[in-house]
Amino acid sequence: MPLWAIHHTSGYFTAEDKRALASRITDHYQQAGLPRFYVVVIFNEIRSEDFYVGGESTSVGLRIVIDHIARHAADKQNRNRIAHWINSILLPYLRDRGGLHWEFHVDETSEDLWMINGLIPPPMGSEAEQRWVRDNAVSPY
Amino acid sequence: MPLWAIHHTSGYFTAEDKRALASRITDHYQQAGLPRFYVVVIFNEIRSEDFYVGGESTSVGLRIVIDHIARHAADKQNRNRIAHWINSILLPYLRDRGGLHWEFHVDETSEDLWMINGLIPPPMGSEAEQRWVRDNAVSPY
Amino acid sequence: MPLWAIHHTSGYFTAEDKRALASRITDHYQQAGLPRFYVVVIFNEIRSEDFYVGGESTSVGLRIVIDHIARHAADKQNRNRIAHWINSILLPYLRDRGGLHWEFHVDETSEDLWMINGLIPPPMGSEAEQRWVRDNAVSPY
Questions:
Q1: In sequence order, what are the residues at sequence separation of 6 or more whose Cβ sits closer than 8 angstroms to the Cβ of residue C41?
Q2: Which of A48, A103, B104, B131 has the CA that lies 20 to 30 A from C91?
Q3: Residue B33: which region, alpha, beta or left (left: phi > 0; alpha: psi -120 to 50)?
Q4: pLDDT beneath 70: ranges in chain C
Q5: Is residue A128 less than 8 Å (CB to CB) from chain B?
Q6: Is B37 on the interface with A (CB under 8 A)?
Q7: In what order do the strands lie in the sheet with B3-9?
């Protein structure tokens, strides 16, 4: 948690873009209090003939699916705030915005059905979670 | 929204099949009142050695994962109706149905955690949504 | 249901590993009462340059996304029990555990928005479900 699956058309990101975007995403979650290693980002290049927007194959498209597990928004206002926060993370990495379709959505799933390296992560705000943040590593608790 | 991720074994769809199926899916959501560009379809070819059904690698399989965001079903009857509606969209494109495993499921996620081209899409049935339908494009509202 | 999408770095699993792990996963769900063919496992190899953990590209990583549809956990205790059960399925197939990041989460979605081979699967524990288990095949009910 979070898991970002970034589906993009061929060539949209350079290798350096990917590295920098993954780092930026991770920075923002760390600033929100999460251990860095909670953040997993997967890039998935899709050929135009496999990527359709509005029924047409697209040569420049970005569709991001995000799973949030350890933190859930309390209400609509908070969810909208998170959506804007995610958009602000992405903006510096969006080229060709004139012709680009870019879209994301977040799914919130149960923290009770989640494990990292064989452990159920500690509760939000707990002493153990803060140690995981400091160590940037899993440890028994 | 909707996002259709169509995982299929190698060679199941021709390039023309993919184009036609994506177009057909989009038509059906448009008839249900959504802007065409809301519909994103991604095809993902999987080799038999990476695709297992019932513990056996499969040479002809189809597993579709659909995310619904802007519209949620009200009750069980409505959800079942939507499942049948999705199945009817697929049927004309299913070849080799004798030996085929085809399966789909839909996840419903929050419309408040969703953005297209930097905007939270307008509420269902709003004047702004109708304009997005007519223009088939995002515009500020 | 269940759908296991296993994202792994290049070369982490051999072809034989994949076959054996998919079989083992299926065995466990069968022991829990499900038809074998309900279990779909998809392996997705990801290059290091497309797979980031904590903002760094990773050479040995495993991120598994599981969708549960036909069975939902009743409470937190039950969900944690399922997480441990999943982890125990995986453990024999995890090599290089010293440097490995392995993580999974489960999403629970509606059984009413799900179809296999054109049929909404029968209710949990029904006579029809038991027949599907015995036949390991879909049949009208």
A1: B51, B52, B55, C3, C4, C6, C21, C22, C25, C26
A2: B104
A3: left
A4: none
A5: no
A6: yes
A7: A56-57, A51-53, B40-46, B3-9, B61-68, B101-108, C114-116
Tell me whether C64 touches chain A (CB under 8 Å): no
**C31: Cβ–Cβ under 8 A, 6 or more apart, which residues?**
none
Residue pLDDT, tens place only, C1-39: 799 999 999 999 999 999 999 999 999 999 999 999 999
Q: Residues with Cβ < 8 Å from B75, sequence gap 6 or more?
A: none
- Residue carrying structure tokens 């990583």: C61
- Out of B83, B97, B102, the one facing C113 most closely (by C-beta) is B83
Helices and strands (DSSP H and E) totals, chain C: 3, 7
Interchain contact, B55 vs C27, CB within 8 Å: yes
CB contact under 8 A, C55 and A22: yes
Residue with tokens 């350096």: A16
- Chain pair A-B, CB pairs under 8 angstroms: 107
The 3-state DSSP class for residue B134 equals: helix
Q: Which residues contact B118 (CB under 8 A, 6 or more apart)?
A: A87, A91, A102
Q: Read off the pTM.
A: 0.97
Task: Kindly list the residues from chain A whose CB atom is less than 8 angstroms away from the CB atom of residue B64.
Answer: none
Supply the ipTM of this predicted assembly: 0.97
Q: Cα(A128)–Cα(A81) distance, rounded to whole angstroms? A: 28
